[in-house]
Amino acid sequence: MPRYRDARYGGETVVLQNAHLRLEVHRRVSGWGWGELFVPDPEGGPDRFFAVLEHLAEIHLEAQMHPLRLEAKTYDLRKTGGEQTLTFDVVVQSPGVLQESWGGANPASGRVTLVLPKDEPVIHYSVELEFLFPVWLRSLRGPWLRIGVDTFRTARHDAIFPGIEWLVGDEWSSGNDYIEHPHALRLTPHPHKVAIPLMAISHEGVTLGLSWDPNQRFDTEQCHIVCPQPVFASPNFVDRRPHHLMGLMYPSACHGLKEDELKADPPMWILRGHPSAPFKMILSADICVGRGTSLDVVTDWVKRHGMPEPAAPRYEWQEAFGRVASAYNDTLWVDGEGWVWEHLGRQPIPWVASHYSEYGHDRKLAKELAAKVEWCRKNPADELPEPSKELPVEIVYRWVSWYGGLHMSFEVLSDDELRRLAEALLEIQTPEGDFPFDPDGRHRTWWGGKSALWRPLGQPGDSAVDLCVTAARSLMVAGERLKEGKYLDAARKTLEFAFECERPEGGDWWETPLHSPNLIAAGNSATAYFLGYKSFGDERYLEKARHWIRCLLPFTHLWQPTGMEMLYNTKPCFNDTAWFISDWTAKHVQWEVLVTFALSDELGIDWAEVDPEIDWATYQRGVTVAALRWTIDHNDPDWMLKSEYPLERTDAAKLDGTMADTFNPVHGTYGGGPCWPDAVARNVAIVMRREGLV
Fold first, then answer.
1. Is 116 helix (H, G, I), strand (E, B) or coil?
2. Domains of the chain: which residue ranges?
3. pTM (2 d.p.)
4. Where does residue 372 fall: left (phi above 0), alpha (psi -120 to 50 degrees), or beta otherwise?
C-alpha cells in the first residue's frame, strides 16, 4: 500500500526499478498519478522510503480557483534493453470548473515521460504540454519532490543549492542566520544566481538530487523563454509541512515571475494556441539518488557532465600576462612611494613584477619593472611591529601579505619574519589546537565593530575551519622552511582539531558571518590539509584535501545563460556583508578562487594530480578566462557598457589593468572596489606553463 497520506489511492500501481532505486507510481481516485521513491539502505536493511513525486505535473491558469493536476487515465510501460520507459498521456483534471471556464473544453494536454536506465541511479523526467487555445498562465509545475514526507520528516544531514544555500544540521533555507531580510528569502531565486542547475539533500548516508538543463526553451516559433525556475525549501516552510521541498516550474524570475513567489502576478499570456498550431511547453529534469553527502551529489554531477570547456580568453595568454605587468609598471606605481593601493598603503613587491622583470617578452617593460623592484628592495617599507597575542588585523594583513589583489604569499616573507609569525601563532594557539575568533583583538575590523551594533559576526572564542587551517598552513611552511619540529607539531594538532569540519566556514570573517559557507575557506582548507599530507604522510589528510578542494564547486558557475558570459564566475560566500550591506548570493567575486590556485602553485600543489577524478586543469583555466573578462579596460567599448564605475574613475586609464571586484549575474555588470591583478597574472602563468607557452 502507498505510504503518502496526502493522496487517495485508486487501487493501481506501476513500478520502475533497478539496482539503485525503486519508483512506485500510484493512481489516485481521479487518475494517474503520484510517485513514491525508495532507495537501498546503506546498512543492508529494507529499502528506505525517501521522497514523494507529488504529481505528474500541475498547472494554474488565471480562470482557475486553484492549481489543477495533469492526470492520465492510462499508462504505457515499455522495456528496451533494460531501459524502462513509463509514459502518461495527460490532461488537466476536471473537477467541474473547466465547464464553467472554457465551455467544457480542456485547455491543455500532453505527455509525461519517466525513463529509468538499466544501471544508472537516475530517473529522467519530462513533460510536454500543448495549449489548444490562448490562456493566462500563473504556473506550470513539473517535478515536485517532497523529501522525507511521512518518513524521516525534517531530519537531514545537509543540503546544497549551488550558489544559493549550503545547509548543515538544523539550519533552514531562506533563514536569516547569515543574511538579513529581505535578502534572506531565496525560495525562487533568479535562475542566473544559481551556480549549478542542481539541488541536493542527504540523510543518513543517502542522497537525492534534482538537476535540469537551465537553457531549455519553450518549443514555440514566437518566443524563446529560457531557464526553468528552481524552487527550494528545506524544511518546507512554503507549506509549513515537516519535510523538504525541491521542484521546477515555469515561468521563472527571468520572465514573468517575481523572485520568491510561486505564481506569476500578473499571469503570463500564452497567445498562440489552436488545434492546428498549438503552443507547446517542455520541461525536463533528472532525479538522481546516491550515497554520501550533498557535496557528493554536486561532485557526481560534475563527473557526469564534465567540466565545461571555457571560451577563448579575452586576450591571448602572453598579451594578458603583459597587460598585468604593464599595469604594475604604469597605473599602479607611484614614483617615490612604490606600489601603493588606496587605504592598504604600501604593498609588497608583486609576483608579476619580479617574474616579468626576469622572463618577460617585452624587454623594455622588463627592464623598467626590474628598476622598480630594485628601488623597493633598497627602500623597504616600514618595519613590521612585533606581533603579540593581541595582533590587530591590519598587521595580519601585512604579515601574511594580503594586498590589493588579495594574493596571499609566503614568498615575500624572510626567514626572520616567518619565524616571528610562527612564534606569534604558538602564543595564540589553545591547548586543543584551536585558533579562536577574537573580534576585540586580532580579528578586530571596522565591519565587525559596526555589525556588532546589530548582530555580531561571531562571538569571542568561536571556532571556524578557516581560522584554524590558515594558522596551521603558516606553521607548516615555517616548520618545513626553518626545520623547526615544534611548528609542525603545532600544525598537526590544529589539523586534528579541525578534522571533523565538513562545510567551509570562517573566510571573509572581517565582514561576513563567521559560520556561513565560504569559498576562500574551502581553498585555504584544501591547501592546508595537502601540506599536512606532505609533512606527515597521513592519508586521511589527503582525502580531506580532496574534500576541501571539491568544496569550491558549489560556489562556481558551471553554466551560463544564452547571451551572458558568466561561465566559471564564482560566488565568494552565501551570506551578506555586515548582515545588510551586500548580498553575496546575488553577486560574483573572482579574486578568492584565483588566490586559491595562485597559492597552491606557490606551494607546489597541482590539484589535477591530487584529485584526478575532477578536471581541475580545465577548472583553473576556466576561472582564469573568467578573470580576464573582469579586467578593466577603458578602451574596450563592450566592457564599458557593462561597467558600474563612474567615468571619472575609468577614464584616462586610471583603473586599466585592475580587476573588477563584483559581477551582477542578473544585469551582467561589473563593479565594486577594483582589485590589484597579481593573482590574475599568476593564474595566467599557470595556464601558459601547462600549455607549453613559456
1. strand
2. 9-305, 317-690
3. 0.95
4. alpha
Burial of 78 (0-12, 13-18, 19+ CB in 10 A): exposed
Q: What is the pLDDT of residues 518-549, one digit of tens each?
A: 999 999 999 999 999 999 999 999 999 999 99
For residue 306, say if its preceding peptide bond is cis, omega within 30 degrees of 0: no
Sign of CA dihedral 533, 539, 544, 545: positive
Which grid coordinates belong to 417? Answer: 619574519
Instruction: Give the separation between CA 649 and CA 674, rounded to whole angstroms.
Output: 10
Cβ 482 vs Cβ 537: under 8 Å: no
Report which residue type is found at 177.
D
How far is it, in rounded angstroms, from Cα 148 to Cα 492? 40
CATH architecture, range 317-690: Alpha/alpha barrel (1.50)
The span from the CA of 464 to the CA of 475, in Å, is: 17
Those residues whose C-beta lies under 8 Å from the C-beta of residue 465, and which sit 6 or more positions away, are 498, 501, 504, 505, 506, 521, 525
Count of alpha carbons within 13 angstroms of residue 324, beta-carbon side: 32
Of 631, 549, 693, the residue nearest 331 (C-alpha): 631
C-alpha cell at 79: 522495456
For residue 522, what is the enclosing H or E element?
A: helix 519-536
> In 3-state terms, what secondary structure has residue 351?
helix
pLDDT tens by residue, 400-444: 433 333 445 787 778 988 888 888 889 899 999 999 999 988 888
- How many whole angstroms separate alpha carbon 263 and alpha carbon 258? 8
Q: Tell me if the domain spanning 9-305 has CATH number 2.70.98.90.
A: yes
User: Hey, what's the cell of 32?
Assistant: 494517474
Q: What is the DSSP letter of 557?
A: -
Beta-bridge partner residues of 675 = 659
- What would the pLDDT profile of 610-641 be if each residue is shown by its tens digit? 999 999 999 999 999 999 999 999 999 999 99
